[in-house]
Amino acid sequence: MTGGTPRDRVDILMDEIPEHSEAESTAKALAFRLRRVAHRLETELRRELAAFGIELWELELLGALKRAGPPYRLSAGALLDSMRVTSGGVTKRVAGLERKGWVRRETDPDDRRQILVGLTETGLSRAKEVFGTKTQTETRLLSALSPAAQRRLNDDLRRLLVALEGAAGN
Question: Membrane-crossing residues (predicted)?
Fold first, then answer.
């Protein structure tokens, strides 16, 4: 910890943990902080999204379809890859958003065996509205770090994720 930097709850917690090497203590404190930051981000996002009547899992599916670009459709397999949930999980999530009128299932005109999931106009409108709020919330919550510090942290975390998960394919 640098001189003059206020202590946080992790510092207090680390004071209570039996002796570890400096490397172990640093890794442990970083792991605690990463979990706490992720939890705070998720909690705040859930609170903000509740005003729109939308859950994080719904946002994830809307996001996958929105990122696909016009006509905002993906196969169930592509959704499975994008969302990293089971096929049953994708089916359940699609059904939930279909009941809300945000997505529709249709047969792929090029391969009648495939089902495509697409955003409805209502779903696209909802996605745009909610993603604007999500971005504002993330920006606000992370504004304690300068843009340069955010870029450095982003680069460091990217290196860590590549080491843990491997490089992403295209």
Answer: none
Q: How far is CA 16 from CA 5, 77, 141, 169, in A?
A: 19, 47, 28, 42
Q: Is 94 within 8 Å of 103 (Cβ atoms)?
A: yes
- Cα separation, 149 vs 157, whole angstroms: 12
Q: What is the Cα–Cα distance from 99 to 19, expressed in whole angstroms?
A: 54
Residue whose pair of structure tokens reads 């705070």 in the numeric block: 40
Can you tell me the distance from the alpha carbon of 135 to that of 132, in angstroms, rounded to the nearest whole number?
A: 5
HSE-CB for 121 with a 13 A CA cutoff: 0
**Distinct helix (H) and strand (E) counts, the chain:** 7, 3
Write the single-letter amino acid at 97: L
Domain 55-170 coded CATH 3.40.190.10: no
